[in-house]
What does this fold into?
Amino acid sequence: MSTWKKILIALLVVFLVLAGVGWWLTRGNPAELTLDDVSGTDPILQDPNPEMVPTVAISEPVGWEKGEVPAAAEGLAVSRFAEGLEHPRILYTLPNGDVLAVLTRGPAFGDGIEDQITEFFMSRAGSAGKSPNRIMLLRDTDGDGAADVEKVLLESGLDSPSGMGWHDGTLYVANHDALLAFPYPLGSDKVTGKPEKLMDLPAAGNHWMRNLVLHPDGDRIFVAVGSASNIGERGIEAEEGRAMIWEYNLKTKRPRPFAMGMRNPNGLDFSPWTGELWTTVNERDMLGSDLVPDYLTNVPVGAQYGWPWVYWRDNFDRRVDAPVPAYLTEYARKPEYALGPHVAALGMAFTRGGHLMGEKFASGAFIARHGSWNRKPRSGYDVVYVAFDKNGNPQGKPVPVLGGFLRDDGKTRGRPTWVAWAGDGALLVSDDTAGIIWRVRAPGAKPGAVIERVTKKRLPPRRQLTGQAASFGKEDYARTVPAQ
It folds into this structure.
């Protein structure tokens, strides 16, 4: 055999080996469970399957054809409220019915290898590029269900903006690095005043969106801040002020940590049954396609959900290097409801009085699942409804509301991002890669009733000690529990 032939055979062997390695690396870890298996109040949690290389399944956006609309649940109709927008993300409806849409992307990527890889994947998914940094005013003046007025309400002072809220002549906006307040009278077509910075926020990081919600009393603002990493691999110091929800008191002008241990909280709304704050949270990656489910949960003050050390209350992530806090599993909370692994749950809104979604959707929460980039098969790319019982507890499995965003060939027509109620009671859904805001309603439905608040009688105060007497013996004293 000639030397050249040997060299060619050797090169062919090397090529085949590299091709095999490449196939193995790109194959990832396909799911063994259905999405419903890892959803609901009692999801199946598989044993973790740590990945050195993440499972990757990027969906290329191709847009919607003229006249195309998402597939709606039976009894619902979909139309275009606004289109031709540049990457609309968060929606907010003002008390007068005007709709605000934030056109935004994350801050520019750095020069590091990880940043460049992330930018490449986001470019393929249609999420990269310079941020428009603009808030649009959308107004339906003739009541036909489509915005006939589209104006730039605000662009000065914005830097990768996200959450919005309005109260008593002030528009609140969360940039990726600060909470701002702008003077804004309802009905005005332009914000002209200079902003007041209320508080600094940890800048960008792996998760740059900063949603906010005003308390119904108008005296507090809650701001969601995601982590700078997947599992604290950049050092726990880099997570200071992150993976948590902040509360800013408008009277005292002071912020405080409200709840912690949430990798990337997003949607925020108050339960109509109890008045308690709820949120959607994106959980960690690279434990396989079946872990870990994103979730929907209540957020009591002082709550701790365990990130990065644990997930679903008491499941330890052994990849985390940072020392585990003492008593973590004793005080970590279990999320209320799993939304499925890697679905990227973002915007969330509870059913409200006056809605036009019909009886099937009269008592629950609507959630935009933006869609996975690291699960096989892909998950999310839809809007779902989670039913709640009369006491304000989630139940059952997620119910499809809008689908058709993900095509059979793995490409996407669009990606649902946020949900908000229009002034007339229809549900609005932003579709960022398609630049469309969808309007969903049940034709002929009467405005839904306001959900009745759950009230309970208070227990009478204890006037005396009763029951078994305490012995105050050796076994009654607190024991020392070592750090975990």
Q: What stands out?
A: The CA atoms of residues 243 and 262 lie 5 Å apart. The radius of gyration is 24 Å. Confidence is low (pLDDT under 50) at residues 17-25. The chain has one domain: 11-29+51-457.
